[in-house]
Design a protein that fits this description.
The complex is a heterodimer of chains A (157) and B (316). By secondary structure, chain A is an alpha/beta fold. In chain A, 38% of the residues lie in helices and 15% in strands. Chain A has a four-stranded parallel β-sheet, sandwiched between helices. In chain A, helix 2 crosses helix 5. By secondary structure, chain B is of the alpha/beta class. Chain B has two domains: 129 residues, no CATH class; 138 residues, no CATH class. In chain B, strands 1, 2, 3, 4, 5 and 9 form a six-stranded mixed β-sheet that branches. Classes of the chains: A alpha/beta (157), B alpha/beta (316). At the A-B interface, helix 3, helix 4 and strand 4 of A face helix 6, helix 8 and helix 10 of B.
Chain lengths: 157, 316
């Protein structure tokens, strides 16, 4: 692929009022409840996240993350229970190893590390959830629209 | 080498004669120079077909998953590590296989030789005392073996099999002072843009033939993620995004399992540098979890287990 084709992103025309799309995979037992608490507590956080509820952070297959990036997400956030708090005892520990490797791998091939982020948010941490989303959105905004690994309609498929 | 080959034949004969195993998986002469091909021997009369030389490149562990009979397998250092992986993952039992370990001093990369010789057709190739002798119709050439080894062999740390039932010949000295991750570190130091361009350059060669997957001794899933259609995880064409995800995920799939035997690179018809990503995985697994693949039958693969103190500084 040439450098040239990299520039033709779907969002390049709307650069000025561009808002990032963030896909957030939240574990049902902690982070999803944390997001719920943020809502109930009326804490403001950027509306850029599209939340997908999953049973456990251990459910997050690396292809979930890669497919999100392929299909138009500018950033991906995966959030689960704090270590030791997993509803399924060890799901988040297993996930942690997987994410550590995946994060390094994506960074190695040149994908900005800020595009894929991970956090532990418990059901009582509504404020932390809002803060995490703020940080992620801010960092992804600074990067601009995702250009790498994005599946463009113009490409053969 | 010839001494080892003779010894190998003798031992294999004994195994089949005493009915210790039902079948032996080894190498025989290939139809072209520089090549050998896997062979499956069930009778003592066939044993003379066996060869052992510097062209025995295939990782025969590929033929183990799903075997019902008791088999003996000829295995180099890297092949043995693949076999250990298969035992760990319960694709075969230790009791079922008889490992005929062969210390190995590196396998010759035929592509490197072919590219050196260009159009010339090699009809006969032998290797003795560190020299490769090549003969064609109107030429003869002697090359230094050390210059034509596979890249994975150049940084091999386990030239002697670590698990075996029988070792053929004496141990060979292990390589000293090798820096197997020098290439990886070089890339890590480059800018993200350069790394991305390199990644794109490599995968743009890919024709999605899946030879890398099919050649990998640790690839035995009944249904591969690329073949799944419900859900269809990744597109099946040479769309750069899909090809990228295929390579990233294939590499992720063998994280903590890959033993750098080089089977994928050898099988690749487009000469994609698979080791570029695989070595990075290997390095990360080693640094993050202190694990090296294929060293002990008792260990659990790193992504199937955890430690409470695993690094998590990347998590908010």
């Amino acid at each position: 692929m040439s450098k040239n084709s990299e520039l033709q992103t779907p969002n390049s025309k709307l650069q000025t009022d561009w808002e990032p799309k963030i896909v957030a995979f939240l574990c049902n037992w902690c982070s999803y409840a944390g997001a719920d608490l943020a809502g109930i507590s009326r804490i403001q956080y950027p509306p850029n996240v599209r939340i997908i509820r999953i049973p456990c952070s251990g459910r997050v297959h690396p292809l979930f993350i890669m497919r999100s990036l392929q299909n138009g997400a500018d950033g991906v956030l995966v959030s689960g229970c704090h270590p030791g708090d997993c509803h399924y005892i060890s799901g988040n520990y297993i996930a942690r190893r997987r994410f550590a490797i995946l994060k390094n791998l994506l960074e190695y091939v040149g994908i900005e590390p800020e595009r894929v982020q991970f956090s532990w948010v418990s059901a009582s941490e509504g404020e932390k959830f809002a803060k995490v989303v703020e940080d992620v959105v801010e960092q992804v905004k600074a990067l601009g629209p995702a250009k790498r690994l994005v599946k463009r309609k113009a490409d053969p498929h | 080498m010839q001494k080892r080959e003779k010894l190998l034949k003798e031992e294999v004969k004994k195994l089949l004669d005493k009915k210790q195993v039902d079948m032996v998986i080894g190498y025989e002469k290939g139809t072209l120079a520089l090549r050998t091909t896997p062979c499956f021997l069930a009778s003592v009369d066939d044993v003379d077909r066996l060869v052992w030389n510097e062209f025995c490149e295939n990782n025969l562990a590929k033929y183990l998953p799903g075997r019902k009979e008791k088999v003996a397998i000829v295995a180099k250092g890297c092949d043995v590590r693949s076999i250990v992986g298969l035992i760990q993952e319960r694709q075969i039992t230790r009791e079922q296989i008889f490992i005929v370990g062969i210390p190995c001093e590196g396998i010759i990369d035929r592509r490197k030789i072919e590219s050196r010789l260009g159009e010339k057709e090699i009809l006969e190739a032998t290797c003795e005392n560190g020299k490769i002798l090549l003969r064609g119709e109107d030429f003869q050439e002697i090359l230094k073996k050390g210059d034509f080894l596979y890249d994975s062999c150049k940084v091999c740390k386990y030239r002697n099999p670590i698990v075996f039932d029988l070792l053929i010949g004496d141990r060979v000295p292990e390589l000293e002072k090798i820096d197997e991750y020098a290439e990886v570190r070089k890339f890590e130091a480059e800018s993200p843009d350069e790394r991305w361009l390199h990644f794109q350059k490599e995968i743009s060669k890919c024709i999605r033939c899946y030879a890398c997957r099919s050649a990998c001794p640790l690839c035995y899933c009944e249904q591969c993620f690329v073949d799944q259609s419900q859900p269809r995880w990744i597109g099946i064409t040479d769309n750069p995004s899909d090809v990228g995800v295929f390579h990233l995920f294939r590499v992720f799939h063998v994280a903590g399992r890959c033993v750098d035997c080089g089977a994928c690179s050898r099988a690749c018809p487009m000469n994609i540098d698979h080791r570029w990503l695989l070595k990075k995985m290997e390095k990360d697994v080693k640094e993050l979890f202190g694990y090296e693949a294929g060293l002990s039958v008792e260990e659990v693969p790193p992504l199937a287990t955890f430690k409470e103190e695993d690094p998590q500084d990347f998590i908010k």
